[in-house]
Fold these 2 entries.
Entry 1:
Amino acid sequence: MSGKRKVAYFYDDSVGNYHYGHDHPMKPKRIAMTHSLINHFKLYSHLHVYEPQPATKEDLLLFHTPEYVDYLEKVSSKSVARLFEKKNPFKIGETQDCPIFPGVYSFTQTYSGGSLDCAQLLNDNQHSICINWAGGLHHAKKSEASGFCYINDIVLCIIELLRYHPRVLYIDIDVHHGDGVEEAFFTTNRVMTVSFHQYGKDFFPGTGHHDSVGEGDGKGYSLNVPLYPGIDDQSFIGLYQDVMKQVVEKFKPDAIVLQCGADSLNEDKLGQFNLSTRGHGACVDYTLKFGIPIILLGGGGYTVQNVARCWTYETAVTLGIPLENKLPANEYSNEYTSPYLHVESNPHMENKNPKDYLEKLKISCYDHMKKIEGAPGFQFHDIPESLRFKDIEIEQDGDENESYDVAPKQHGLVSKPQNGMF
C-alpha cells in the first residue's frame, strides 16, 4: 500500500438488522461488524461516507423482469401460502438457500442502491474508488433468486456504468463462480467477466468451466479460472496477477467492478480455499495499481468474524493506510475468538492445485486473450438520463479528514458532516 487515496464508502445502518434465519449461513450482520471495525480502526475519518439511496422498482427493472420484481415486492411470510397456490417459478422461499424473511425486498433495495450510487459517482467523476460491502450478490438471475442472492446489484451497477464507460471489466474473487453476472453479459463485448473460483463435483453453482467463454458478440469476453480446494496465497496471487495483467492490457477497460467475496479465505464455513486476508487483499491492491476507476463490492463470506476482518483490511488497502494486527475493542469484541486482524493460511492444508495445473491455466488464459479483439470501439450518441438522479453534488466544508454522510434530496445527494464515529 502506498499513498492515501480518496475513497467513497457506502453504508446503511439498517443493513445489519436483516436476518435470513437462525440456521442460515448468510448473515447481513457481517456488514455491521465490518463497519464497526472500520470505525474503531479510525479509518472512517479518511473515507468519504455516504448513505445509499434505496434502489427503486424502476432501478431493479433495468435487469430483472417485472413479474419477478413484483413477486419479490409482495412476498412475505404471511402471503407466501396464497402466492404458492400456483407453482413458484422464482425460487424464492422454495429452498433454504433463498428464504422469505421480513423486509427481504427492502434489503435488496438497500444493497442494490449502494452499488448503483457507486456507479453514479464514477460516471460523474466524483470519485475513482467506491466501496459498497453490502453489495456483490452475484448469483441472482433475471427472474430467479439463487445462492442467497435475490437482486443482482452487480449487473445493475454495470448497466449504470455502461451509460458513460464503453468497456467495463468485472472481476470476481469469491470462492463461488460469478454465474449471474456472466450470464447477464454473455453476449456482449462491452463487459468482460473474469471469475476465479472453486470448481468441482457438487460445488455450487456448478458452472464456470474454462470453456465457458461467451456467445455471439460476447464470445471470448467471459474468462473463467476454475480452481481446486486448498489454493494458497502464493499460488493465487501469482495466478491473479499474471491473468489480470493480460486482461487489462488487451481489453483496456474504462472502469472495473471487483467482487471481493470473503468466502475464499481460510476457515470459511462454505469455501475450501486457503487464502489469508493479506493474500486476498493483495489482489485488491494489485487491481488498484492499474489506476482505473473501480468499485469494490462484497459478496460471499460465512465465517462472519473473518468477513469483517477481510473487508476492513481491504478498506485500509484502498486508502493506503497500514493497520496494526491487533483488533481494537468494539461492540462485537465478544464474537472474535482471536484478538488479531489477520486470518492466516493453514500451513497443513493440502493445495490440490499442482504447479503444472496452474501453469496450464495461465497458458489457457493467455491463449484466450490472444483470440479476442482488442478494446472494442464505440461511438456514443445520446447518453440516456439516469433513472436515479441527475448528479451527485458533494459539498465539503471543513477539514479534509472529516467524515461525511449523504442523504437523498430531490434529484441529487447533498452531504452533511458526521459527528463522532456513528
Entry 2:
Amino acid sequence: MSKRPTLMGKSEIILDQNALVPLYRQLYERLRSAILAGRLETGARLPSTRVLASELGVSRNTTALAYELLLLEGYIESRVGDGTRIAYLQPEDQANERKNKNTEDPVDVVQGPALSQRAQVLLNTPYPGEFDANQVRVGTSLFSAGHPDMAYFPYEIWARLVAKHARQSLQAVSFYQDAQGYAPLREAIAAHLAITRGVHCLPEQIILTSGAQGALDLVARVLLNPGDLAWVEKPGYWGAQGALLAAGAGLVSVPVDREGIDVEAGKQLSQNARLAIVTPSHQFPTGVTMSLGRRLALLEWAREAQAWIIEDDYDSEFRFSGRPLEALQGLDNARRVIYIGTFSKVLFPSLRLGYLVVPPALLKGFLAVRRFIDVYPPMLEQVALTDFIVGGYFARHLRKMRALYLERRNALIDMLKQEVGDLLEIVVPEAGMHLVVWFPIGVSARAIADRAAEHGLYIQPISRFSLQDPQCDGLLLGFASASPQALRAGIKTLAQAMRA
C-alpha cells in the first residue's frame, strides 16, 4: 500500500473559476472520474485538504467539501492517523463508468433534429434553480431561496394521516377520480383561501396540479398559441418563463420596480399581449409587494386588452407585518385572473401539490387539456392533506414557521448591516423566505457569487433571473432553511469573499 500521498498530475485537475458549477463540485467530479476509471488505485493515499488546496490555488473549503462528498458516497475512506485513501469499489461500479465514457454525454447525442424546436429552446435556457441534492447534505444550501426548514415539519402527524388513509381510504380512491382532484381537498382549499387571501371561488373552480409548475404548464397549454406574446417580470421566476417557452410563446420582459411590475412600461412594450404572469404578494426574486395602484392598473389593462393575468401567489403565507394583502383575484370583477397556489413551499418541496383557481368560463377547456397530461396528482397525498388542513395542523404549522422565519430574517438583516452594510443596499422584505441585497452600478454580483462558491456558499445573482443583463445587480439570500447562528457565520464568509 502506498505510504506517500499520490494524485493525478496537477495538469489533469483543471478547475474553471468562471463556470456556473462551484469549484468544489468540479473537483469532486474530477476525482470521482479518476477513481472510477482506475487512474487512482484502491488504497492510494490522497493529499490533505490543505496541501491539495495549495497545489490547486483554491480555498481549503473547496477541497474539504469535495472530499466530504466523496466520503459520503463511498469513493474514499478516512481513518485517524492514516489519512484519506481511495476506497475499494465493486467491479460493476467501474464497469458502469467505462460504459458511460464510451457512450459519451447523452445530451450531445439528442441535440439537433431529434428534438422539437420547443425542447431545444428549453435545453438552451438557463435553469437558475437547479441544485444538487448533495448541497443540502454538505450545507451549501445555506442561502438558497425557496427552501423551507423541513426540520420543523410535523412528520409524525403527517405519517399518521398517510398511514390511516393507506389503511382505510385507499381502496375507495383506487379507481379513476375526478380530473379536478379530490373534492374534500378542494373544499378545504376554497375555505382557506376565502379566509386568508380574500379569493372569491367555489370548490368547483379549483384544479389540483403537480405543484405550481404543473399549474403554470397547464395555463400555458390552455391559453397560448405558438407566437402569442406574454408579459413576464424582469427579473422574474424562471419556472414561469420556461412554461411559456415550452408553449411557443414570445416573452415580453416588463421591468419591476419598488411597486411591482411596471404596467405602463408593459403597455408600451406590448399593449395586446395575451397574458401576464405576476407574483404580486411577494415578487420573485426582488421580494417587493405590488402596490394597490399597480394592481388596479394591471386589472384595467387585462380588461381592456381582453388579456389574462396569472397570479402566482408566491410565499404569501409568510407575511411578517399585518395580515396578508388581499389577492389580486379578489379585486378582479372582470374574471380575468387565474390564481395559482402551492403547498410545496409551505410544507415540504417533494410534496408536489399545487392548485389553480380558474374562472368558470375557462373550466371546461382546462379540464379537457388536463385529462391528456397527468389526469390528476396521486390521491393518497390529497386525502392526507385534506385532514391536515381540516384538523388545524396546516394553520398551526404556518404560525410556527412564520415566527421562525421572522427571527431568521431579522438576524440576517442585522448581520448584513454589521458586516457589509457599507457595500450594498439591503431590501427588507415584508413576506417570504428570502431577501435581496443590491450592489452599486458596475459591481458584478456574478463575480461575487463565484467567489462565494469557492468558500462553499451557493448564492444566486439577480441577473440570472433576467432575460437581459440588468443595469444594477444583486444577490438573492434565502434565510428560511438555516439557524440564525448559521446565517451569521455565512455572512461573515460572504463578507470575506466580497472584500477580497
